[in-house]
Amino acid sequence: MAPVIRFDTFHNIVNGELRGAKQVYHGLDPTTGDKLWDAPVASKQDVEDAVAAARRAFKPWARTPFEERVSTLRKFADAVKPHLDDFTELILKENGKPVKKDRECHVHYVPLGIVASILPWNFPFGQATLKCLPALLAGNACILKPSPFTPYSALKLVEIAQQVLPPGLLQVLGGDEKLGPWLTTHPDINKISFTGSTATGKKVMQAAAGTLKRVTLELSLKIFADTTRGGNDAAIVCPDVDIQKVAADLVFGAFFNTGQVCTGTKRIYIHEDIYATTLQAMAVAAKKLKVGNGADDGVVIGPLQNNMQYEKVKLLYAEAEKNQFKYYNGDDISLNKTKGFFLQPKIIDNPPDNSLIITEEQMGPIVPTQPWKDEAEVIERANNTSMGLGATVWAKDPAHATRIAEKLEVGSVFINSSPKMAIRLPFSGHKESGIGIEGGPHSLTAYCNQQTIHYFK
To answer: Which residues form the signal peptide (predicted)?
Structure first.
């Protein structure tokens, strides 16, 4: 009989067992600001025990035939399915987003060993599965470290996994700022998969270099104090588009998940011939987006996930107000005065190139637009960043859009669509937006070593 899974108590999972801690921490409900449930703070001994259990679990799992791994992970999926409604409610509580489930797929090679996956707060459930499933399918053991802002989904996901996975194969450790360095410097951990800011990603890479750990880095989340820009993905809109349709899609691409998407649209360049008309159409579309509790009917934009991000995004609103930038969607640019981390979405009309709203990744419901005239010049503007995660191109002629797309220095370009990631397709960043790939049939190779055997007659 499967164990009873409660969604109001949370534990670290070490060697197949629920483990509490002397210290606890808690997330905040971004909709209300209220404290959520206690989550355990992992100790150094917890890390040592988890690594030792992963080492024991890894060798027999690596020898398990690929088809059997697939069968076991399908059982894992079957164990999660009865709890999807519970996870929906849990994600709403800890993350605040209106939830949409997505797709997944897999492939194969020689496993690395133990993988430590360090997760961001903006997609706590999706990132946990995106990292652990290919790692396990490739034959590795995996330790997840959720963000302290959103620990609950990963903790509960791994608890459910214990119903079907061998002890120590998939573990989760929640904790404080000490936990990440313990994992990245541990000599028995073979790979780090990290999603977060470029500044932190560089520290992860530096720590991993001590033991030549493999790394996959998906870097776009921005800390304003850093000198490094964030993802800052651009949209280029050509003059021959269907303005009404494109305007609604541009707004969705900028404000989906309250703008807290690494590949979300952060800068919008619109051809000068249609600039004013498109901006007005975007304002109309933005006004239709209901802001509120993600559990309420019709809500499209929920709260920002945490107070830290809320305070950072407020700097952009304050800049717009101080400098009297022209804005759309609403009569004022006043900040939220209610409980919870809510902000009304805003479109900023043609701010200067050196303004924060242009140079920084927003990760919130505010986006700048600027006109363009010369195609080569707008491509240069779009590429004028140390980052290169994603972009969108909008044009009636797909061949024309493709010619622009091929000149953009990014890992993913979406033509005539807002950014829509799919786990079956590769996802990677150029320049300082990361190293390695996630998703797609080749994502398993990121969790493998290659071995070549030469035969001579």
So the answer is: none
